[in-house]
């Protein structure tokens, strides 16, 4: 499942920079800058919850954005990699901030 979520990763276990991401839901090619926002657009409302288009999990509406961002976080040893552009971070929190500022 992690390989599906890490769009820039290869089978060798490292990330390479990407400028375009192919959506696994609609197969549309989107800019890496709007990858997270694009996936959020595929969420289906179910009452106060939203069903994640990536893992089909029912998530509370207010937690949906954070949930989608976490699909793009890749753990590599003691650091975290952005699954979209391959940039490395020491903490998950700093990676999530990067995703929010760069890929939404």
TrEMBL record:
SUPFAM superfamilies: beta-beta-alpha zinc fingers. This is Zinc finger C2H2-type domain protein. It comes from the Archaea. SMART domains: ZnF_C2H2. InterPro entries: Znf_C2H2_sf (IPR036236), Znf_C2H2_type (IPR013087). It comes from Pyrobaculum neutrophilum (strain DSM 2338 / JCM 9278 / NBRC 100436 / V24Sta) (Thermoproteus neutrophilus). Residues 80-104 form the C2H2-type domain.
């Amino acid at each position: 499942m992690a390989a599906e979520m890490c769009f820039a990763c290869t089978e060798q276990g490292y990330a390479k920079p990407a400028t375009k991401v192919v959506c696994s839901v609609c197969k549309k090619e989107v800019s890496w800058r709007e990858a997270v926002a694009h996936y959020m657009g595929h969420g289906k409302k179910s009452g106060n919850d939203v069903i994640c288009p990536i893992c089909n999990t029912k998530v509370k509406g207010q937690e949906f954005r954070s949930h989608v961002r976490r699909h793009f976080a890749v753990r590599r040893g003691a650091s975290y990699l952005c699954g979209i552009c391959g940039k490395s971070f020491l903490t998950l929190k700093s990676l999530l901030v990067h995703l929010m500022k760069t890929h939404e």
